[in-house]
Amino acid sequence: VILLGVLAFFLALRAFLTRFFTRRYQKTGKAWAERGAELTKRTTLLFLLMVAVFASSLSLRLPAEVAKVIRALIVTLFLGQLGIWGSRLTSLWVSRLSSKRRAEGDAAAATTLASVGLLIRIAIWAIVILLVLQNLGVNVTALAAGVGIAGIAIAFAAQSILADLFSFLAIVVDKPFLVGDFIVAGDVEGIVERIGIKTTRIRSLTGEEVVVSNSELLRGWIHDYAKMRERRVVFRFAVDYQTPHEKLAKIPELVREVIESTPNVRFDRAHFKEYGEFGLIFEVVYFVLSPSYREYMDAQQAINLAIHKRFSEEDIKFALPVRRVMLERG
Length: 330
What we know:
Elements: H1 2-28, H2 31-41, H3 45-57, H4 64-103, H5 107-135, H6 140-157, H7 159-174, E1 182-185, E2 188-195, E3 199-204, E4 209-213, H8 214-218, E5 222-224, E6 231-239, H9 245-260, E7 265-275, E8 280-288, H10 293-314
Antiparallel strand pairs: 1-2, 1-5, 2-3, 3-4, 6-8, 7-8
Helix pairs in contact: 1-2, 1-3, 3-4, 4-5, 9-10
């Protein structure tokens, strides 16, 4: 009867606190109310049952062995409950900070926070497990020594997994790329969708998801186009060898006028570079003031059309590849 009464009290208290914190959070949006609601929701029935058993046993005279077992179970469940609470609080902390950083446009911090949260949760449960083992009478020092020896053997057997794990930490700390970046790594190109402990997932231009191990990804060169502030463009064209000298001299200035009249670009230079096999080669360099590939192609198209129009007006002809085949009669 005492046990049922105590258990009913704790269940009612949990329900009351859950409703209280939930309503406060809905009204105020305060972080403490959200944490309180989550902690009460995550309080397990098994933990409350053992607390009720312990509270009921205080009014009874139990054999020493039984009391010892009850205390050990209570401590074990309490440590497990602390692990659940700590893990959930860490998740809430990471979620709130990540949302705030993403709203500020800081994708790097959001990626780092997610990784840090995972490491904190792993550390919490590692500590809980050690404390539980110690509470159950296991020699943790001897166990740690044994685990150390076994760990060496496991490390040799799982070198690729460990390499990917350390590569993941390198990505988190050094930030060579972030979630949402467009990267080219080897023969893989696409947008980074997820950075995991073992693999990174990339959405390719053709739509499929490419899964690459972290160690393999960091082994070669990575081109991160998201960090490009502006795009340098070099293109060439050839005009006919019959073009008069006066018109050749006008071409660099003509191209400069075309590029400077194109929005979102900056002209750098235009030169008569060399005598080609089929025509006179001009080289042009300009900058697109955006990393967007679409904007680059729009600008290049506008420049090409404008140059074609100006050349038609000036009667300047583009060079066409011509091959002469000489046939000899045997």
